[in-house]
Batch of 2 targets.
Target 1
Amino acid sequence: MTRWHIHTGHVLDVMRDQGFVAGGKRYKIDGYVAVDWTNKIEVQVAQYLFGASTIGINLPQDWTENAVWDATTSQIVGGHDVTPIDYD
């Protein structure tokens, strides 16, 4: 298991068990699942069933210094989480 999975799993566990505050109100998620991001149909089914998903990406050093994100071999300096809400 990668560091990203461990961290993301922890954050999702907290959101399920303790919830998060938005607009002064506490919300809890019911649960979460993992999907095979290389399987387009599986990702689309998850989007359809759950309405949204979250994708974690590693951020290379070059992406923090340039306006254009391109292929690079620079070291990973952190992560970012994005939430797609649709697919085509």
Target 2
Amino acid sequence: MIVGTGVDIIEIDRIRKSIEKFGDRFLNKIYTKTEIEYCSSKADKYRRFAARFAIKEAVYKAVMKYDPTIAWRDISVQNDSDGAPTLEELSKITAIREMGIRIHISLSHCNNHAVATAIAEIES
């Protein structure tokens, strides 16, 4: 049964400007080390950073009633062997999973925007 949904869209240029203006201070406030290393290694890094920003917002919206204290760096996206995005098993995500809640995510980006969706589902 679906118990929460979240969606977010962001302008890639907004993330680019924040990174250019605030640098590591911005990156380390929002992203995990895993995300920073992955995104920074890509030619289209601002799209990657924007998509991860959007998924953090979407996941928060989907699970906030189960943990309203979840923060930016409690949500981290990695890619599986097929390249599909998955949530890294950090402590707060693990705690939510231990409540029997599975979080499905999807993200996408184009030249100007990144969008992400999260669905929280109680496993039966």
